[in-house]
Amino acid sequence: MTALLHAELLKLRTTRTFAALVGAALALSLLVVVLTATLDNGLTEGDVRLLFGGDFTGLFILLLGAIGITGEWRHRTIAGSVLAAPERVRLLAAKTLAYAAAGVVLSLVVTGAIMLVGTLILSGRAEATLGLAELADVLWRNLAVAALLGALGVGVGGLVRNQTAAVTGLLVVLFALEPAIAILLPDAGRFGPLSGAPSGIVGGFDFPEGKLLSPGLAVAVSIAWAGATFAAAAASLRGRDLV
C-alpha cells in the first residue's frame, strides 16, 4: 500500500494539471484576500475569519481528484495501473489517500500565504487581525475541507469514469443544485457534500434560511459522503472492464 501511495503521489506532483491548479488556487485566494483587506474598512474578527477561510483549495482539489482518476480511462492507462497493482480497491484507496494528502499540503500553502499577506495588510491599516489560536482554528478547518473534498473527487471520478461528465456534474452540483436546495430545503442543504457540510466545517456564517452543521457533525457528514462514493466506485471498479 505504501508503494502504491508513493507512486500516486509521484504521478500527481509531476503532472502539469496539478501545477496549474496549484497556481490558480493560490492566485485566486490571494487576489480575494488582497482586495478585501485593502479596500474594506471596519472589518471585525469574524470578517477576518471568513476572509482567511476563503481558501479555494477545496474547489481545485475536488476537480483535480476527479480529473486524476478519470484521466486513467481517458488516456487508457488504467490497464497498466491495474497490472502493476492487481488489487483494484487498494489502487483506488491509494489514489484517494494521495489526493486527500495533496489537498492538505496545497491548503497549508494557500492558507498560510493568505494569512500572512492578509495579516500584514490589515495590520498596516490598523484593522482587526487574528491571534495564533484563531489562525490555527481557521487552518485546521481549511485543511480538513481540502482533504475531504480531494477524497470525494476521486470517488466521484472513479464512479463516473468519463472526465467531462464528472467535472461538469461536480460543477453543476456545487454552483446550481446545492445552492437551490439550500434555499428551498435549508435543513437538507446543510448536509450537501460540496458546500453544505464543508461550510459547516469552515463555520462563521449561516446557510440561507437555516443554521450550519456543527464542525464535528459536518466533518462526520463529509467523511460519510467520501466513504459512500469510495464504496460505490470500488464496487464499480471491481466488475468493470478496463477497455
Structural features, described:
The chain is an all-alpha fold. Helices cover about 80% and strands about 0% of the residues. Helix 10 packs across helix 11. The two termini are about 25 Å apart.
Short note summarizing the structure:
By secondary structure, this protein is an all-alpha fold. The protein has helices spanning 2-13, 16-39, 45-52, 57-74, 78-84, 88-124, 132-160, 163-184, 186-189, 196-202, 215-239.
For the structure shown, list the relevant keywords.
single chain, globular
Distance between the termini: 25 Å
Order of helices and strands: HHHHHHHHHHH
Low-confidence stretches: none
As a percent range, the share of helical residues equals over 70%
Percentage of residues in DSSP E strands:
under 5%
Biggest β-sheet: count, sense, barrel? none
Q: Report the average pLDDT across residues.
A: 87
Shape: globular
Report the count of strand segments: 0
Classify the secondary structure makeup into a structural class.
Answer: mainly alpha
User: What is the helix tally?
Assistant: 11
* C-alpha Rg (nearest Å): 19 Å
